[in-house]
Amino acid sequence: MNVEGIGPLKLRNLLSKLKSIDNIINSSQTTLLQVEGINTILALRIIKAKNEIKKFSIQLKKEYSLLKKIDGKIITIWDFQYPELLRKIYDPPIILYVKGNYSDQDRYSISIVGTRTPTSYGKNMADRFAGELATQNISIISGLARGIDSIAHKSVLKSNGRTVAILGTGIDVIYPPENRKLFDEISEKGLIISEYPLGTKPDAQNFPKRNRIISGITLGTVVIETGINGGAMQTAAFALDQNREVFALPGNIGIRQSEGTNALIRKGEAKLVTTPEDILEELEIKLKPVIGKNIPKPNLDLNIFEEKIISQLSTTPLQIDKISLMTSLSTSDCLVHLLSLEFKGLVKQLPGKTFSLI
Question: Mean pLDDT over residues 155-160, rounded?
């Protein structure tokens, strides 16, 4: 039933009161007006829709035929396959169009989101967090957009993990078009989800609504990099409203892509994380069914010299002589301790004897 002005919330109110679509269509105006949110105009539209049932049935059969051709299907909020966590949010979509198969593992999922134009640091972190979390049997959710989303999906697939893409288009419309291969691989090994009917184009207004699903279907959202007005900030806001965890990576001051994550941390809206283990520890109880009791702990047992060095480093590479000068340690001593920090996964060496935080 497609009636202008009747969205998921009003439809749920109607079904709660009248129990079935047939009862809704066949109800009188007086009965319909007793339902919360239904005014005279909406009641008359519902009554008028009765005359369009035949047309609607033809459209429905056509859509089912198209879904069958692309190996897609429809899941409603009343089906047992409907994601349990998504069902609990304030405004869950009534219908989901899906391509691929839902897995029990998806009940233990984390979303990774961020800017479409990440820095090298953002790319590295998205790849690292997605890949490592995926190896813990955690499904990684993202939006198949350019940038952080695509990197997260690819990292999971590279790690032989499970990933789910939430679209702002119909599941037969691949956007951005260069992600066709990625789309096909996700639908084969994971799951593609959209609340939008087949043929829906990438309209700008679709993506904020899509973001509530990305946060709502997961235990928590990780924001890698985002501008202060980026879509990832909307996803974080939805997660907070849905009483889900929000995590953010700190970034360099003055970098546009770090403004959003730093603001989330500064305002106490997101927990600061620097390693995937930080997330596993925070969600330990909720994730225990899939990752067991042996949650890896970060190796942060640093000696005083390592602490002195790491306090001077950032994601911007520093030359060894500069590090030696800043820490008042000899070049040879710096190299020894930097090697130790590399082994602990905290520092990486770059060409020209330069070093930076991972």
Answer: 96
